[in-house]
Amino acid sequence: MLADIEAGAIEAVLVWHVDRLYRRTTELEEFIAICQPRNVPTYTVQSGPLDLATPSGRMVARTLGSVSQYESEQKAERQRRANQQRAEAGRHFGTRRPFGFELDGVTPRPDEVEAIRSGCADVLAGKSLASIARGWNSRGLVTPQAGNPWTSTVLRRTLSTERLAGIKTYRGEVVRDSSGEPVEAAWPALVDLETWRSVQAVLSARAPSWPGASRQLLSGVARCGACDAPIHSGGARNGRRRYRCSQKGGHAYREAEPVDNYVGEVVIARLNRPDAIELISSADANDVSEVQRDIRALNVRRDAIAEGFADGSVSLSQFKAANARLSARMQELEAKVPTPGLPALAHLATARDPREVWGSLDIDVRRQVIDVLMVVRLVPVGTKERAYLDVEARIVNPETVQIAWRV
């Protein structure tokens, strides 16, 4: 509208009330600056003409604008307080339906709940978000707001929301009661808290933490067979990815895809052996649960020390000394928790068809599994004839890809 007034396309402005024209004094000043020199009159149905040509008329307009701005700010403040009270009570509010629940935000939707639970299990088993999203789309599931097909980005955001574990958040923060404990949400948890936290750990481990983070299977995992330096991506030649020794003037240059395929086949062959179950970490479920209990107990002790420092019963030097001891112990305990690659290894070792499972895994999880199982060294070859048993078919010569099993 302002652009049309400036262009001379509008000769007069008619509104129901001034608060439909502007709600902030800055908006009014802009309106005055455009209308006054062009003698464009303003009329309101509720209050009559708005005289912007005289000082007294502009004073009235500014007064009405101040009142409108006050009322708008008061309304926003009341809404914020109401939302805060609802959040502190653990209630759902908002007009958007969260995935997994009906429009009321409290009643679970059985088909979506099942998808969320199976999706969390698939993440922990090492499946890629893209493959999980394809599975959801094939079942006819769509995003709750726009009704769009699922993508890995939207799926990651959905599985990362605290609401799935029955945790209420407000403005990105967990809502806590007066004692500092998370408030009980009005809706049921769709997955237990430990499962949700495990899923977050896996998703965080998969997310590239810097631009250009590796998306090649053996980059940073394999080593040079001549100097033992890490193997990195060597760019591409003739459209084919390559690996190279990371040392200056490095030794090993290999086409990546045939080597990736060979290492994958070695992993699959090992997992097809009858003793594959023995590859699983010796830390069984009871051991892991015990470590998790110890971590929770340690967190309680750390909170107690912090409270003691806050109320003055613990001195600063005592707080620092105790916190240092507990932090060291926490690092020891966290080191005992299996890495994200181990659940995938367990899934592979017990699968009917390891090849199918291996193909469904996210590349970051496959890298973790390889790193757990073996050390891969690429031997400098010099010629294609030495690199391959069959140059045309790109069948790798096993003597040029050395594998030392860790387990």
Task: Using brief descriptors, characterize the structure shown.
Hect, E3 ligase catalytic domain fold; SSR_resolvase; 47% helix; mainly alpha; 407 residues; Recombinase zinc beta ribbon domain-containing protein; DNA binding; extended; 14 helices
Summarize the structure.
This protein is mainly alpha-helical and 407 residues long. The chain contains 14 helices and 13 strands.
Give a description of the structure:
- The protein has 407 residues and is mainly alpha-helical.
- The protein has 4 domains: 2-88, no CATH class; 110-206, Putative Large Serine Recombinase, Chain B, Domain 2 (Hect, E3 ligase catalytic domain fold); 223-280 and 349-405, no CATH class; 285-336.
- 47% of the residues lie in helices and 11% in strands.
- A 3-stranded mixed β-sheet has the order 1-2-3. It has a 3-stranded mixed β-sheet with strand order 6-10-13. It has a 3-stranded antiparallel β-sheet with strand order 7-8-9.
- Strand 11 and strand 12 form a beta hairpin.
- Helix 9 (285-311) packs antiparallel against helix 10.
- 23% of the residues are buried.
- Mean pLDDT is 80; it is low at 208-214 and 281-288.
